[in-house]
Write a structure and sequence with these properties.
Elements lengths: L5 E5 L16 H12 L4 E3 L28 H6 L5 H4 L12 H22 L3 H9 L1 H16 L10 H4 L3 H10 L1 H27 L3 E7 L7 H5 L14 E5 L9 E6 L3 H6 L3 H13 L2 E5 L6 E6 L9 E4 L2 H11 L5 E3 L7 H9 L4 E4 H4 L17 E4 L8 H11 L1 H10 L8 H14 L4 E5 H4 L30 H13 L6
Parallel strand pairs: 1-2, 1-12, 2-3, 3-6, 6-9, 10-11, 11-12
Antiparallel strand pairs: 4-5, 4-7, 7-8
Amino acid sequence: MKFGRESGILLHPTSLPSRFGIGELGSEAYGFADFLARSRQKLWQILPLGPVGYGESPYQCFSAFAGNTMLISIERLIENKLLLQEDIGALPDFDAGFVEFAKVRAFKSGLFRKAFNRFEAAGAGEDYIRFLRENDYWLNEFSFFMALKEYFGGAAWNLWDKEIAFRDSKAMVYYRDKLSREIEYQSFLQYVFFSQWRLLKEYVNKQGIKIIGDLPLFVSYDSSDAWSQSHLFQLDEGGNPLKTAGVPPDYFSETGQFWGNPHYKWNEMEKDGFKWWRDRLDLLFQMADIIRIDHFRGFESYWEIPAGEKTAQKGCWVKAPGRKLFQTLRAHRKDMHIIAEDLGFITKEVEELKNEFGFPGMKILQFIFNGPLEEELLPHNFEENSVVYTGTHDNDTTAGWYLKLKITNPKADYEMKDYFHISGEIGEKAICWTLIEAALNSPANTAIIPMQDLLCLGSEARMNIPNTIGGRNWGWRLRKGLLTTELEEKLAGLSELYGRNKN
């Protein structure tokens, strides 16, 4: 499958400006869509939209299906008369440049309870009933799971009372009755999230812009999926992972990346024709037009780390049924517009799997110019069916990367400047735009630029440092006023120059 010659911007919705401490699906999101349109961009890439769990990572979610309710727009709740202006009160002193997740969660949860009370008093409408019916295959168990987490003080499901942790039939009946209102509240939040997202996506699409969503290969151990469908995961009798996921030592970490996700029982998933995956993909394609598969190589072989290990150094590669899975998914839906994240340790078998299904892979300019330069990997030699980035959410910003490169690898700095015919010293801003233009000018059909690189921001704006927890990971926010007319005109001009806006 070949994509059109297009370009776009990587910006997760949590990073949008908002007076409520976190990006929302309200006016600023619609304003960003307008900015994309005026900049002649055709793509908006985001990170996973699930409800974040451990470490606030969108790649460690409480569900593979549910939405992140912290993105719910307070403005829209007021417009829909589920909140009144006086409900808001005095706003906490939120950091405009960083998401203070705990503070945001505490503030918004109080407002959501008020909105639910009004919703409940008004009575459920047909739209809500339809949402419950159409999403019952995941929503019922998710809402129950979240109600139980609230009841047990946020503890992981394996730390709940044994009877409900392991889904004893009597305990299931007892807790469903006991927590019935909380379950309804959780379903209400999902209804609001999906309603707001649907309206935003419709607006974005009407602007001629497609959304690139993100599908993590693995799900969190502390998730409704692992709790309600434990037979699909490699867990022992006590519910603990037998083997966990990650990758061996690589560019990002000398000890590898230890993710801690449980591995799948692929033989169990195959018994019903990979229904869990078919359902997951169907929902994702309602939310996005194109799906980037994170850690695509894990569909060919995955790194299996024995239980009890604290790093990813000890492990082994295990074959996965990727070919059979994608054959099933393609038979299920013909319009699979997928990008394969093929970074890290990539074998001939992984390349063959990607190419068999025509999925474009990823090119990262920071990696290419880290040196030494290899002719076949340089931007002018990119294949058309690929997606080029200056960097990703896991990389330093290009400005931050280059500042370090000059100090730690002067040879790579020299070779890069020689490639671009640059003589003498050059600043981080100039390098940002040099790499942006290289991406846009390349033969790759798709070019995606992180928002931080368009603004030439330094390491303080980095989105994530892999294999680390806490700190400022996932919290960067776009400050209001930085999306200037000058920036959109410059980007529009480059998109026109390099033929990125013809489709």
